[in-house]
Amino acid sequence: AKEVFKRERIKYPKIRPLLVLISDGRANVSMKALDPWEESKHLAALLRKEGIESIVIDVEAGFIKLGRMQELARFLKGKYYHLEELRADRIMSLVRQEVF
Questions:
Q1: Closest Cα partner for 31 from 11, 73, 60, 3?
Q2: Cα distance between residue 56 and residue 22, in whole Å
Q3: Which pTM does this prediction carry?
Q4: What is the pLDDT along the chain (100 residues), one digit of tens a residue?
Q5: Cα 24–29–35 angle (5° rounding)?
């Protein structure tokens, strides 16, 4: 995401990037042979430092919940929502509010 935003900022300098992250927070694959969850937090902090705003939508379900997406939203300094709180039209509305 960081590289995509970087390229788009070069093409469109007035762009205001917005990351919409939809996940259950169960990081299971690392890009650089690190602990996947620790790497996720590190990358989230880098995105935040780049000034990339974010909306985090947590889709974690089941009896055992880790609550990692709330933590990741804090690293991103993004807005957090759980999928149970949202409908498709509400998600689009949130994105529009951030973009416009």
A1: 3
A2: 6
A3: 0.78
A4: 888 988 988 999 888 889 999 998 887 788 887 888 889 899 999 999 988 999 999 998 877 777 889 999 999 999 999 887 777 667 777 778 877 6
A5: 95
